[in-house]
Amino acid sequence: MSELKPVSESVFKHIENTWEKQTNSPGKYAVVQVQQVFPSKEILNRFEERRTELDRKMPYGEKLQTLQLYFSPTEDQLRGIFNEGFSEAFSGAAVTFFKDPVQAIEEGFISPTRELLLCRVSLGREGSDHSVQNGRYAVSNSRTVMPSFLLTYTQLRT
Fold it and tell me: How far is CA 142 from CA 18, 28, 93, 125, 137, in A?
């Protein structure tokens, strides 16, 4: 089971700046709380094993790319992710992530608790391990995903 802990003020500012840089709709939403996710050893090991597999499959001269992407979970999904990790919560189904947090909010599940996950996502080879279209990253194997931070946000304007 993952553990959540509040972050320092400097980490909060970094997340806030990252949010503003990655959105195409600044000033629409704001981060009000950030908690760091500390996954269980089992969840972390599954992620690292899959990253190693992907890295070995990369064509010669190409590096495995790992991005910080946003995911808008339902409350049940969030509970499953924290208890079992992405791979178990989604049973191998493709999962869509977003580079833009506002796009994640508006195209993903709008949570009544207003929470987003900021995740490390190892992409692998485009076409077989993931696809990218209009700022959406569809990952075919969710073992390549590790939640880093749980963000609580508020809407500033409509």
Answer: 23, 29, 7, 14, 12
